[in-house]
C-alpha cells in the first residue's frame, strides 16, 4: 500500500505535468508521443536496454528482438528532420539494472527539442520550465525560481574543485597522474574517459548546484557522441548537464547534424561495447538518415522523478513512485 508520502508525490506529479504542458504550449512547442518499443536502442557504453522478443501472431513480421527505449531521442530527432516545430514529450523510459536511491529501471522523462537553436537556447527554456514546475508544486522551496542558473564549463569545474586543468592534462595517463596526486584512485585503466569519470565523481559532482542550480557545459569531445563540437574549440562538445545539490537532473546538447560523423561515432561506441564484453546493437539506419537532414537544433532530457524528489525533499526515488522497482525484489 502506498504511504502518505507517496500519495503526496502522486498529487505533486499531476501538478508538475500540468505546469510543464502549460509552459511548453505557451512557448509554441508541440507535445508528441513516440514509440517505447524500438528496433535499435542507444549504444551508450554504460546503459543497457530491456530486450523484448517480438513473436508474430499474424502474417506480418518475423520473430526478432525489440527493445524498450532508453530515450525517445532518435524518434524525436527524426520528427525534427521532417520539419516539425519545437517538440516535447513526457514519457516512461527504461534502463536495465538501474536500482538505487536515485535510479529506477522505469522512470519518467521530459525530453524537448528546439529547431534553429543551440544549447544556450535550450538552457534558457529549461530554466523557465523548472521555475513553472516549482511555482505549481512547491513555491516555498526556491530551488529553481531564481534565474539565470550558474553556467560552469567542465574545465573550470575541474580547476575549481580538483585543482586540475584539462588543458595541462589532455590525455589519460597524464590525467591519471594528476588525479592520483589529488588522492583519487582510478584503478588499472589509463583511458581518458575512465580516469575523468572517477575524478569527476570524487571531486566535482558532489559540489555542483548548491548555491543555485548549475549548468555544467562544454564536456570533452569524447564524451558526447550525439553532440556538435564547439566551432571555436573542437576539443569540447556543446553538451550541458544540469545539477542541483550534487544531483544530475538533465543532459542535453546542440545536435550533431553531420550524418557521416554521426555514423563514425556510433560505430566507435559499438567497438567500445564489444571490447567491454557488453551486448552490441545494430545501428538505427532511419535515425542516421535523418541526422543529415536536421536543422541546427538543440535538445535536452530531464529526469522528472529526481526533480520531484528535490521539490518534496525526498531522499529516495521510491518515495515519489507508487510502484517502485524495489517492491519487485
Explain this structure.
This protein is α+β, with helices and mostly antiparallel strands. It has a domain at 4-146 and 286-328: BirA Bifunctional Protein, domain 2 (2-Layer Sandwich), CATH 3.30.930.10. Helices cover 35% and strands 21% of the residues. The chain contains 9 helices and 13 strands. It has helices spanning 4-26, 73-81, 119-137, 154-162, 172-181, 192-204, 259-275, 285-291, 304-312; strands spanning 30-31, 37-38, 50-54, 64-68, 87-94, 106-115, 150-153, 214-217, 229-230, 233-237, 239-244, 247-254, 297-303. Strands 1-5-6-13-12-11-8-7 form an 8-stranded mixed β-sheet, with helices on both faces. Strands 2-4-3 form a 3-stranded antiparallel β-sheet, with no helix packed on it. Strands 9-10 form a two-stranded antiparallel ribbon. The longest helix has 23 residues, at 4-26. The two termini are 16 Å apart. The model has no long low-confidence stretch (mean pLDDT 95).
The gist of it:
With 329 residues, the protein is α+β, with helices and mostly antiparallel strands.
Overall average pLDDT: 95
Task: Please tell me how large the radius of gyration is.
Answer: 20 Å
DSSP summary: helix tally: 9
Shape field = globular
- Portion in beta strands: 15-25%
What pattern of helices and strands is seen along the backbone? HEEEEHEEHEHHHEEEEEHHEH
How far apart the termini lie comes to: 16 Å
CATH H-level superfamily title of the domain at 4-146 and 286-328? Bira Bifunctional Protein, Domain 2
Largest sheet: 8 strands, mixed
